[in-house]
Structures are given as structure tokens and as C-alpha cells.
Amino acid sequence: MAGRSASPAIGIELGTTYSCVAVWRHNRVEIIPNDQGNRTTPSCVTFKGTQRIIVGDAARNEAIRNPTNTVFAAKRLIGRRFSDPSVQSDMKLWSFKVIEGDGNRPDILVNYQGEETRFAAEEVSAMILTKMKEVAEAFLGCAIKDAIVTVPAYFNDAQRQATKDAGLIAGLNVMIIMDEPTAAAVAYGFDSNDVNSIVKKNVLIFDLGGGTFDVSLLSISNNVVEVKATAGDTHLGGEDFDNRMLNYFVQEFKRKQRKDISSNPRALRRLKTACEQAKRILSATTETDVHIDCLYEGMDFYSTISRTRFEELNIDLFNKCIETVKRCHEDAAIDKNNIDLVVLIGGSTRIPKVQQLLKDYFSGKDLYKSIHPDEAVACGAAIQAAKLSGQGTEEIENLVLIDVTPLSLGINTLGGITSVVIPRNTPIPVQKEKVFVTSVDFQSDVMFEIYEGEGVQSEGNNLLGQFVLSGIHPAPNGETKINVTFEIDKNGILHVSAEEPISGEKKQITLINREGRLSKDEIDRMLHEAERSRMEDDQFIKKILAKNAQEDVADLLGRMMNELQEIKSKLSEMSQYDNTYSNIGRSHYGGESSNFCNDHSEGRE
């Protein structure tokens, strides 16, 4: 059993469009609402010039007024290179600016504290994680340190490490990086109680979110959740469906008004928001209107879009989802007819066409919708966090998760061919070793290039980095053998080492080309700046509270003065009334008021 932590450990889904935080408490999972009472928080950050950074609902509300300084979908940048085709494509549709940073890293450029400032995607993600941490602390009434943060199953090594860096910058101890569909499977297992069943079930998790798509096939029984295979696309989700509609309306506006709004951030942001709303409405009805006053240069925009048209715009993306499902269960060598349950996770699974295509593929099989699609991942992460922190029930303590690596990992060899060391869908954590030999006579140094991907040729795969082994025993070509060890830890992060058996000396491997990754100095700087920002926020809040208190006191004094003035006025009126009444008494009865009272009294007897 894990050692019990002093404070609760939380589970955070760091989403492309929305994030969610949960905790295991009172023998159940609780989704923690934010300061607006919402159970999910927009993954949105606004930089307001000389003012503080705003995160969440308030930032989303700022998006139309302040589009160039409101950042969203940072998850689509984290761990990627600036030159990545998906980054180049997304940049054209974003209202904020992305520029090339150090090591081909995509940096976000905003106006902050009166000057143009660069932020890495890890920093923006850290701001969102900080917000979720603060939401949990306000709800639980204690400081939070330990957390599990989830990522798409198809995130590569760089994206996973960058997400872990974001957690570190946010002041969190990231216990593990957990795959989103695995977390959803845990939530389903506890929701349905299948995790305790002795009958094994093959469960397919279909996770289509705001910006990423994952499919995982798992077996669940006897407190064991075992991932058999996973497939996905880290650049497919609701954002892409919105963008298809956005492009459609941009062209319509251009056709009707002879104006191109594609380079106007504010117009694009307003139209994008309208597209998001239209997409949601079309999940419940067959047609909706899109009406925006003064969209561009005083011109209004009015259009109608049907569900059929929306489906036509995105049918290739929807079909891509089904192709991914097919690849996943074929990788697991499980026939689709032997899949017992299909569980829908992620907000984009509400789209009727997606459900229809999925149901048709599985020959009419009912889809499991009982678990909340926006909250399931955070729930599963919270359950696993309770286990690792020693705060769960016996049932949770007995839970065993067996995950897999989504991509093959190997070494580039002579001729540009990738020699696979760890094949995809290998259960993790795992350690595997492979022997390589020198290719040049009497060489003393060997450079190894590490790749991930399924291509035979290395150039078609993703270069993770390089390491150099120096001082090896010089010998003719092919005689010196080097044992290379690949180890994938519980976070799905790769560690590499090498040893030369002839000398028996084990060499420490250093990756020297982690292109786009944050350095330790950069992380330390961001930690310092994040702490300074939190202190500034505290001072800002204290200032506002003090100002509000002064205003409350001033308001109270003002009301008291007004009330006192009213009392004085009434007393003055009463005094005038008494004087007038006394004079009337004297004029009518010719005596003092006391005689009038006596006379009146006598008259009643």
C-alpha cells in the first residue's frame, strides 16, 4: 500500500478546450466546481496589458474583446516544434500570435505588462494547472501538492515530458502522467462495478475531445484494467470541426460582401465562437441560424447551417475516427464482434453523426453513455491518485493498471532504417535491451539517434533526440558491441542507457538534441515567475478586498448620515407640528394646552 499523504491528491484532465479536476473523498469521486460553480473550466488564458493574468471562464469572456492576448488550445502546441505542419496550419486560424522560439519551439507572443512577451506552451498550460490547483484548494480548504495529470494516449515522449514540466511550473508534484482513455476506463470500471467482476470484458474507449482523439481497447476484470492496444490522433477533435465551419462561413462572407476577414483577429474570434455554439445546437436540432451584428467594417453576418451541411463539411474527419477504431482492435487481434462495450468519452462524442457511424461499425451495438463524457477522465485520474497517495478504499488499493506505449521506439541504423527496440502497444513500465555494433573501423565514438513511429525509414518517424557514447574500445568494423537499454517509466517517458561489454564500463547517456524542450534553467525561471505571479495575484486580491472594504465602510457611513438626516428632518417636522398645534389650542380655547387636555378628559366622562 502507498504511504498515506497528509493532503488529498487530485486528478486533473488538462484539456484542449476545457479542463476538469476531481478528488476521491468520502469513499466516492467528487468533481470540484470552480469559482463560477462550473464543473469544467475553459483552458483559456488572457493577458490584460499591465493587469494580472486571467484564467478560465473570465478569460473566455475576454476572448472577443481581447482576441490577440487570449490564448486557447495550448495543448496543441505543447511538446511540438514550430515547424510542425499542424502548428503551421493552426496558426492561420488563431487570433493570437505564435512565433518561432529557441530550438524550433513554438512561442506565444502577447502584450503583457506593457510590452510584448513570449510564453512557451508549457507556461500557459502551467497557468491552467495552477487555476485547477487553486480551485481544488478553495474547495478542500487545504494546500494541494500531489496530482495526476492526464494526456492523450497518443502523446509522444516530448509532449508527455512537456506536460510534466507544466505541472512542475504550476507547483505540483505530478505523481504520474496518465493516459486519458485509461483514466476513463477506470472511471467506467468503478461506475459499472465491472472492475470487480470475474467475467472479463473487452471495452473500447472512444475518446473524442476538443483537440485530440484516442481509442483504447482494454480488458477489465478482477480489479485489473489492462490496455491491449491504443490508437489515435493528437490533432483531431472539436476544434477541427469548428474550423471547418469557420472556413465555410469565411468564404460565404467573402462571397456575399467581397471582404476577407481571415486576417482580422476580432472578426475571426467572434465567428469562431458562433461556430462553436452552432455545433452544439446542431447536436440537438437539424438546423440553426448564425447571426453576428457588425462582424466586419460595420457589416452584419447572417446565415443558416443545417446538420446535414455540417456533417458534409466534416465527413472525412468522422470517417478517420472509424478507421482509427478499426486499426486499434486489429492491433489487439480482437474481432470487433468480441468487443463487449463501446464507451463514449469527450464532448465531441455528442455529435449525432459520430454516434451513428460508430454504431453502424459495430452492427447496431448500443453505445455506453451513462458516464459523463466531460468528467470521466478526471474521475479516473482522481481514483488512481487516491491509490498512489494511500487514501483510497481497499477496492482502490487492489486496482492494477497495465498500460501500453502507443508508438514504437528504436535506433536509426545504417541506411536510415529504424531498428525497433520497443514495439508499439508494449505494456509499460518496460525495459528492453538491444545489441548494436560499430559500423566504422576503430571508431572511438558512436552517435545514436532515437526515433519513435511506425515507419521503416527513420526520416518518416519522429526524432526524439541523440546521445553520444564516447571512449569505446577501438576495433575493426562490427567487432565492438554496445548494449543499448530503453526503459519506459510509469509516465510513458523514455530513458536510454548504453554499455560496452568489452570494458565492462557502463556509460551514462545524455540526450543532446531535445529540440524545443525547456531547459532546467528555463523551468527554474518559469517557476520563479509563476510564484511571483501568484504573489502579485495575492496582493491584487488583498488590494481589491481592502478597496471593497473601504467602499463598504464609506457606503455604510453614507447610509447612516442619510438616515440621521432623515431623523433630524422628521424631528424638526414634529417640533414644528407641536408648536403649530399648541398655537391652535391656545387660539381656540383661550388657555394652555393642559386645560384643553383636562377639558377633553372631562368631556369623555
From TrEMBL:
<dbReference type="InterPro" id="IPR018181">
    <property type="entry name" value="Heat_shock_70_CS"/>
</dbReference>
<keyword id="KW-0547">Nucleotide-binding</keyword>
<dbReference type="InterPro" id="IPR013126">
    <property type="entry name" value="Hsp_70_fam"/>
</dbReference>
<keyword id="KW-0067">ATP-binding</keyword>
<dbReference type="GO" id="GO:0005524">
    <property type="term" value="F:ATP binding"/>
</dbReference>
<dbReference type="GO" id="GO:0140662">
    <property type="term" value="F:ATP-dependent protein folding chaperone"/>
</dbReference>
<comment type="similarity">
    <text>Belongs to the heat shock protein 70 family.</text>
</comment>
<dbReference type="InterPro" id="IPR043129">
    <property type="entry name" value="ATPase_NBD"/>
</dbReference>
<feature type="region of interest" description="Disordered">
    <location>
        <begin position="583"/>
        <end position="605"/>
    </location>
</feature>
<protein>
    <recommendedName>
        <fullName>Heat shock protein 70</fullName>
    </recommendedName>
</protein>
<dbReference type="InterPro" id="IPR029047">
    <property type="entry name" value="HSP70_peptide-bd_sf"/>
</dbReference>
<dbReference type="Pfam" id="PF00012">
    <property type="entry name" value="HSP70"/>
</dbReference>
